[in-house]
Specification:
The structure is a single chain. By secondary structure, the protein is an alpha/beta fold. About 25% of the residues lie in helices and about 35% in strands. The protein is built from five helices and ten strands, in the order αββαβαββββαβαββ. The strands form three sheets. The protein has a six-stranded mixed sheet, sandwiched between helices. The protein is globular, with a radius of gyration of 16 Å. The chain binds guanosine-5'-monophosphate (5GP). Guanosine-5'-monophosphate binds next to strand 2, strand 7 and helix 4.
């Protein structure tokens, strides 16, 4: 088991066969040292990609994204889920459907923070049906920037997000890949971790 899989087994709560709660280190309380390790692991996988921007989405993508940004020394931009009072002009937007909330939302980022030609790594906390990931990819495409790939903390591999991204030709790197989960336990797909 890798360091994240171990943590998920110790602290994760399986709310249903499709929903995992990890609020002790990722979704509510944040374990900074642990998040640093996650950020470094994502960066290692993309070390040859000359990334110069990281894009994530508020709020739970921000912690792993910031640590990846610290490691790479590149800016981290997070897409907003709600319209900001101060963020009105020059917006890039896309629509994201949430299966958990069963609603569609517009996400946005100021166009001045995503520029043509930039090499962007997209980071998020979970990959489920891939809707958030595809919405973020849309923002990068609208900016005429390049998507180097996705760095995902926890992938629920029994949902179709990874396949949707692969079908579009994107690279997907997930630190933990869950193949099945229930109150009795969590099963992982093999995921090679480069950190010690
Ligand atoms: P997707 O767009 O891939 O269907 O879902 C990804 C988004 O939904 C993530 O940004 C994450 O916030 C949320 N999400 C999806 N599944 C889970 C889950 O099992 N647990 C938690 N905590 N969040 C999830």
């Amino acid at each position: 088991m890798n360091f994240l899989e171990k943590k998920i087994c110790e602290e994760g709560v399986v709310l249903s066969p499709t929903v995992l709660k990890v609020d002790s280190f990722l979704n509510h309380q944040i374990d900074p040292l642990f998040m640093k390790q996650i950020g470094c692991e994502i960066v290692k996988r993309y070390k040859d990609e000359k990334i110069n921007k990281i894009l994530t989405i508020e709020s739970s993508g921000i912690a792993p994204a910031v640590f990846a940004g610290l490691e790479l020394d590149v800016p981290v931009v997070f897409a907003r889920k709600k319209k900001s009072l101060t963020l009105t002009d020059g917006l890039l937007t896309s629509r994201v459907y949430s299966f958990t909330k069963q609603e569609e939302n517009e996400i946005s980022v100021a166009s001045k923070f995503l520029n043509a030609g930039e090499r962007v790594l997209i980071i998020d906390d979970f990959l489920a049906h891939g809707e958030a990931a595809l919405g973020l990819a849309e923002l990068v495409k609208k900016a005429d920037a390049h998507i180097c790939g996705f760095g995902i903390v926890i992938e629920k591999s029994f949902q179709n997000g990874r396949q949707k991204l692969l079908d579009k030709g994107y690279r997907v790197e997930s630190i933990a890949r869950i193949s099945e989960m229930s109150a009795d336990g969590i099963t992982f797909l093999k995921s090679e971790v480069l950190s010690t």
